[in-house]
Each structure stands twice: as C-alpha cells, then as structure tokens.
Amino acid sequence: MAYETIIVEARGKVGLITLNRPKALNALNSEVLAEVVAAVNGFCANADIGAMVITGSEKAFAAGADIKEMQAISFADAYAQDFFVGWEEFTRARKPVIAAVAGYALGGGCELAMMCDFIIAADNAKFGQPEITLGVMPGMGGSQRLTRFVGKSKAMDMCLTGRMMDAAEAERCGLVSRVVPAGELIDEALKAAAKIADFSLPSVMMAKEAVNRAYETTLAEGLRFERRLFHSLFALDDQKEGMAAFAEKRKPNFANR
Ligand code: HXC
C-alpha cells in the first residue's frame, strides 16, 4: 500500500510507523487514521514482525486531531459517523505498540500516545489536552485514559485548564515509562521493541492482554485470568526452552516469535 501521511518501514523484527504531515504538525485527519490502522493491521498479520513503534517528528508527535478538518462538522454528522471511533481499531492491535514521543503530543496526539502500550518520551516532549481552549473536550480517550494514568486531580487540571505537561512531569506522574535525550529517542524505542520482538511472541501477547485486562475487570477476575494465561504458556515449547536455557546458563532461542 502506498501511504501519503505516514512512513512505514520494517527495522528487523520491528515495524516502525512515522507520522508524516510536517506542515500540520502531524495533525490526525481521517487519512492518517485510515493509514495508521492499515499499517498496524499489516504488521500484526506479518509473522516477521514482533512489535511496533509509532513516532512523529522532533517537533511534534501529533498536535491533535485536525482542527481544520473538524471545524465545520455538524453534531448530526459527528454522531452519525461516531466521529473518531475508528481509532478503537488501533487499540485492538494484539502485538505491542510503543509510542516514541518527541515535541508536542496534544489533544488527539496525547490520546494516540496513550492508546499505545507504553510511552517513551524525548526530553523535549510536551503532553496536553487543550481541547477546552477550542470550545470542546477530549474525544479520543483523554478524559478516561489520562485519568487512569495520572489520577483524577492531574487529569482534571490538564483537561480543564488545557495546560501542557513537560516530559519530567509526565514521567513523575506515570504517563510515560521513561524519558531519554531527544537525539536518542528512536534508537531507544527501536531497541526496546527489538528486545520485545526477540521474546516468545505468545508470551508477549498474553502479557499485553493480561495488563490490559487490569483496566477492565475486578482484581479477583484479573488475577484468575492471569493465572489461566500463565498455565496455558506451559503448553508451548518456548516455556521449556526458556527455562532450560536459564538452567544451562545460555541464551534462549524461542521458536514462537
Ligand atoms: C490542524 C494544525 C494543528 C491541528 C497545528 N496545526 N496543530 N492544523 N490541526 N491540531 C498547523 C497550524 O495551523 C500551522 O499551519 C502549522 O500546523 C504549524 O503550527 P503553528 O501553530 O504555526 O506552530 P507553533 O507556533 O510552533 O505552535 C505549535 C502548537 C500549535 C502549540 C502545537 O500549533 C497548537 O496549539 N496547535 C493546536 C493544538 C490543539 O489544540 N490540539 C487539540 C486539537 S483537538 P499553517 O498552515 O498555519 O502553517 C483534538 C480533539 C481530539 O485533538 C478528539 C476529537 C474527537
């Protein structure tokens, strides 16, 4: 598929998606949505790929949903189209997706980063939900995911004042998993993804599924679900190989990548 708004490459076992609308600071229009979802689905279906990284430019991961595209939309159309529900397909990716965020991650950009499995931030990253300044509010998960990441007080602060959070604050409050120098962002994200892609793919996918389940169920049900997945991994050669390699003091060679 020829992409217009993103660059899609395989770097070894890692699928790299780069948002590429530099003139609009990678604002997320309907074309970006369709292309990102197609690229992710393609990597999920590709047996040679074990993990993905999604990134933007040094200035902007994404400065939000495309305001110029949204501007004229009516309530009737927004409701009828269930505007932006398409991004839910992105969150159904079963292989891990890391967001590598430099510069602005605002509105839909911050929400896209939060849809990923974890966020690695460059030291120049700025996160925010500025929709309130446009007379609207978050619409791609900002009021829900941000609250789960950082708690009510900070989520309210971000959504009601529209202020930005820098990378240090984002790491302090648990929005991002690590902060790295801007020049090392892509290498660090690719290294993390390559490490994941070298593990047993079923173990990786089940670990992702189990962590995500923590958001959707009670602790008792989540623990039961985790145990059942854990048990099922003993049906795979990868468990035998991983544990034998530990006992024999060598690196494991997993078959189910
Ligand atoms: C469309 C955008 C855009 C956006 C920037 N641009 N953000 N176009 N949608 N979200 C365009 C600008 O219009 C401009 O185009 C070019 O990108 C460069 O932007 P500047 O503003 O000139 O850059 P700068 O002065 O460096 O300021 C950067 C910025 C600012 C602080 C990030 O661009 C900004 O505030 N952008 C909007 C951020 C925002 O409100 N995001 C939330 C969107 S709502 P021209 O043609 O003039 O050069 C949202 C809702 C999600 O995300 C949920 C929906 C259901």
Automatic annotation (TrEMBL):
InterPro entries, sorted: ClpP/crotonase-like_dom_sf, Enoyl-CoA_hyd/isom_CS, Enoyl-CoA_hydra/iso, Enoyl-CoA_hydra_C
Q: Which UniProt keywords apply?
A: Lyase
Top-rank taxon: Bacteria
So what EC number does this one have? 4.2.1.17
Zinc among keywords:
no
A Pfam family that the UniProt record links to this protein: ECH_1
Q: Which Gene3D superfamilies match?
A: 2-enoyl-CoA Hydratase, Chain A, domain 1, Lyase 2-enoyl-coa Hydratase, Chain A, domain 2
SUPFAM superfamilies per the record? ClpP/crotonase
First-tier enzyme category under EC:
lyase
Q: Name one GO molecular function term.
A: enoyl-CoA hydratase activity
Family to which this protein belongs:
Belongs to the enoyl-CoA hydratase/isomerase family.
Protein name, entry field? Enoyl-CoA hydratase
